[in-house]
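Record 1 of the preview.
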Amino acid sequence: MNGSSYKSGWLLRTDEKGDSLWSMNYTLDSFDGHYLSGIAQTSDGGFIMSGENYDWDIRKQSIWVVKVDSLGCLVSGCNPIGIKEVGSSPKHLIVYPNPSSQSVSVMYSSRNANSIIISDNMGKTIFTQELRNSKNEILLDISNYSLGLYRVSILNKSGEILMSKKLVKY
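->
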């Protein structure tokens, strides 16, 4: 039997309603066939998966273990969820520290800035505030946010997005 039909492992993350948030494929190039069959969530919000891999030429079978972060990344920060950043230049909006678990500072440089919004990865606005700070900086508490990817946007008076940046809550 040739095991070449099993070439990857697949992880799908859904919300509480079952809607897809992201999915990732994991492969091993050095083996003829492999699959993932077990999964558990880890204490850091990531996942650990296990399965088997085969090398049919030498008839070798071994275990396959994959550990990923809460976004399905093998290497932290791979950001499988796409959020388009807008603005004339990324240096006009700075969000730091990023990723963060407690609070972030948002620095922006625009005379037309009127408000700031934070949207989750589904596009739902979870925070909004009018900007009245002449220092062009705001400190945001994100400690109660769920783990995941967010978009921080600066809007003008008309509600148009002047600039935006990704924010990762871990």
